[in-house]
Specification:
By secondary structure, the protein is mostly helical. It has helices at 22-41, 46-65, 80-97, 102-122, 131-147.
Length: 150
């Protein structure tokens, strides 16, 4: 047996790796981390998100060029981009913890607020009549967040 490729065991009380070569063990660990990273990112909406944004913007610009009145404040669609990422973050936190936490709840709340803000601009809603509803919803959100575990 050739002992030149084997390294001495730093912990004499433990068994050396089965492969006998520390490089094989490092490669296996690296591959395991890569596979775990791939599995963790599989199914995320990153791949189709950019395409969806381009399609929506193309439809908006096409309708405007054809003279069809559609969303005078089309720029408010850009507010939906961070809202989308807030929803993605809330979903990932929820999946990691298997229940709704304050962190997931705050991300979800921010996504909802950004979506509502975008809707206000898109549909020219005047808040003069409805602003007390915002106070009521804000109070309910604070109460709900206080009941969630950290």
């Amino acid at each position: 047996m050739n002992d030149q490729n084997q390294t001495p065991n730093p912990n004499p009380g433990t068994q050396p790796p089965v492969s006998g070569d520390w490089r094989d063990q490092r490669r296996a660990e690296h591959e395991a981390r890569r596979e775990e990273r791939f599995q963790r990112h599989a199914g995320r909406p990153y791949g189709w998100f950019g395409g969806t944004v381009l399609i929506v913007l193309g439809v908006v610009f096409l309708l405007r060029n054809l003279g069809i009145p559609f969303l005078e404040n089309w720029w408010a669609l850009f507010i939906l981009i961070p809202a989308f990422w807030c929803f993605v973050g809330a979903w990932e936190i929820y999946q990691a913890n298997s229940h709704l936490t304050r962190r997931a709840g705050s991300s979800l709340t921010m996504g909802i607020l950004l979506t509502l803000l975008s809707a206000v601009f898109l549909f020219n809603v005047t808040l003069g009549l409805y602003w007390p509803v915002l106070l009521i919803v804000g109070g309910l959100v604070l109460l709900g967040m206080g009941l969630l575990p950290e």
